[in-house]
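debug: dumping io for the single-chain case to check the tokenizer round-trip. Nothing else runs in this session.
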Amino acid sequence: MNVSGMNLNNPPVSPGISQAKVESSTKTQAEAGSELSQGAVTSQGDTRVSISKEGRDALSSDSGGKLHAQAQAQSAESSEKPKKKIDELIEAVKEKLEKLKEELKQLGNDKSEAGEKKRKALQSEISVLTAQLMDLTNQKMEQEKKEQAGAA
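debug: decoded output
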């Protein structure tokens, strides 16, 4: 078994963790249950891993600090990502609206039946996109209110 940081041929994973003892034995579930409260980990097979108190303390302080920093960074990113997504969606809808309005202007002189159908289709699509734009704008305002309430 080669676990990074536990192999004696490799240097430890972090400065606080030097060695871990890996033992293999066969125990009953009752014996294994009592050892779990003491820090031993068991599985369905006969593998048992024990980590000393010093090792657990070093691992928790080393890994815990990194995990805490990662969680804070992810939290900050997640609050920025939805805002960016909404802004991107708003811009995409605005661009599409502009294109449709331009198409509608170009069809202004077409008095044929096909031109009339195309105008109606464009107008309904413009209406739908306008409603989407209003909804996205409302979502953005709600998000900004939440951010301001959270900052206060």
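debug: round-trip ok. Confidence is low (pLDDT under 50) at residues 39-43.
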